[in-house]
Write a structure and sequence with these properties.
about 475 residues; alpha/beta; nine-stranded mixed sheet; 13 strands
Length: about 475
């Protein structure tokens, strides 16, 4: 009884929303209240000048001590300005020199600047106060640091819940008993729709690494309403991979996959793709490059063999490659492009948000040594531009679709997308770049990309007719489709 109640309490705590929820607002509010309260108290009831000797160096003993009120204001201003400059300067340098391999964007720089400004003011107050006011100032400083983290996270959309910060899954185990057996096509369902649940089902599942031996974390699966009836539809598949650091949960929570898929299903008689978010990392700190290596294990085999086989054997899906799509964000997007180009006979469609040009993990020479046993040719075989060049004239990709999304605040990803889609078109692929306004290298870009791409891709996978163009959908989602020759 007590254990059950405790589990419910923990579930509520871990499900606290960190993006647009109450916690970021409360942290910011408490920080501001703490700073304002301490400043007002210092002005109305100054604590005296006992601590002056600690705060003044090389002071002239004959000079008149400064007013405690003025000292408080001066220190708070110094702390705030120092924090503002440090927050802006450090994040600008990180952005300018691409320290993390991606652009941070001006929204992140601004959020960091004014948030660290509050941290600086709180630190200054903790230095000049004493007694119980110092305790309050230290608490305010901690709140300011937490508030800074949540403000930056709201820009990125990386950690949607408190549980996602500590990698605690937000989903119950997938109930396979609720899933029907695939016995009819999407066209048959549209002609004679069956009563189905209004919402799809989301659950977590451990997909065995039978062929690969890769130590993967728990995957997350979405089954649409048309798959939750006894005579289910042979549904298309969307494999979605999060970025690094990240987890399968992140794709569903930060990517809003259940909401996007359920909205599509409601507009199409319960039809939507089965969505599976597998783990291509093994750990949030591992950039596996999505290749088979002695460093992190056989990731490529895990995704393309183990995960793909498990989906076919356990879910009501079509086996046709034109009914399979593979997608991802950041590192996951790079993996999606690699797999889609290396295995066109398995994945007919690729949706990539904020992708790199190819596998990337530090210095190229060291990367080839660590992940490809020093074999440069093996590395090049995983680089999208090299793959496309190799198949420039053999029509391997004549029936494949590639949609790459990037935010306007992430110029590097925009250039990557244009470079790859241009090469893909030359190789005979239906390839398009879409630009999302006012977003950067973040999950907001992913959401807009998916909302724009899915109607077209789902129709190409047999869920709708006629097939809407990307321009048609872009008119409603607000993204820009890049005209390419």
């Amino acid at each position: 009884m007590i254990g059950g109640a405790m589990n419910q309490v923990l579930e509520r705590i871990w499900s606290i929303n960190l993006i647009g929820g109450w916690l970021p607002k409360v942290l910011l509010g408490l920080t501001l209240i703490g700073i304002v309260l301490l400043v007002i108290l210092s002005i109305i009831r100054p604590q005296g000048t006992n601590a002056n000797s600690r705060l003044r160096s090389n002071a002239n003993t004959s000079s008149k001590p400064s007013s405690p009120r003025l000292r408080t204001i001066r220190w708070v201003c110094i702390g705030a300005i120092t924090g503002l400059v440090a927050g802006f300067g450090i994040t600008w340098l990180l952005d300018h020199y691409l320290v993390f391999g991606v652009m941070l964007g001006m929204d992140v720089i601004i959020a960091a600047a004014w948030s660290v400004m509050l941290v600086g003011a709180a630190i200054a107050l903790s230095i000049i106060t004493h007694s119980w006011r110092k305790v309050l100032a230290i608490v305010t400083t901690v709140l300011a640091v937490c508030s800074t983290a949540t403000q930056i996270n709201e820009v990125y959309g990386e950690y949607p819940t408190l549980g996602s910060v500590v990698d605690i899954t937000s989903f119950e185990p997938l109930d396979l008993s609720r899933i029907g057996k695939a016995t009819q096509s999407a066209q048959q369902w549209r002609e004679h729709p069956t009563q189905a649940p209004k919402q799809g089902m989301v659950g977590s599942v451990n997909i065995p690494a039978t062929a690969s031996g890769f130590k993967a974390r728990t995957a997350v699966v979405y089954v649409p309403p048309a798959g939750l009836v006894p005579q289910a539809v042979r549904l298309p598949v969307l494999i979605m991979m999060a970025g690094q650091p990240g987890s399968p949960d992140r794709a569903f929570l930060a990517g809003q996959l259940p909401q996007i898929a359920n909205q599509y299903a409601q507009q199409h008689h319960g039809l939507a793709p089965v969505i599976v978010a597998p783990d291509q990392l093994g750990s949030a700190l591992h950039n596996t490059l999505c290749v088979n290596s002695t460093k992190y294990g056989n990731v490529e085999t895990y995704i393309t063999k183990d995960v793909t086989d498990w989906i076919v054997n356990h879910l009501p899906v079509s086996k046709e490659p034109q009914h399979w799509a593979i997608a991802g964000f950041s590192q996951g997007a790079t993996c999606a492009v690699q797999f889609g180009l290396r295995y066109p006979e398995r994945y007919g469609h690729i949706i990539a948000s904020s992708s790199e040009l190819g596998p990337h993990n530090g210095n190229e020479t060291r990367m080839i040594r660590d992940f490809f046993n020093g074999n440069a040719a093996a590395y090049r075989a995983h680089v999208p531009l090299d793959i496309l060049h190799e198949h420039m004239h053999d029509q391997v990709f004549a029936h494949s679709t590639l949609i790459m999304g990037a935010g306007t605040l992430d110029s590097k990803s925009i250039n990557n997308a244009k470079t790859i889609t241009n090469a893909a078109r030359l190789a005979g692929m239906d390839a398009t770049t879409i630009i999302v306004p006012n977003t950067g290298h973040d999950w907001h870009t992913v959401q807009a990309t998916l909302r724009t791409a899915l109607p077209t891709v789902c129709a190409q996978m047999g869920l709708d007719f006629p097939i809407p163009t990307l321009k048609d959908t872009a008119a409603t989602t607000g993204v820009r489709v890049v005209e390419q020759k």
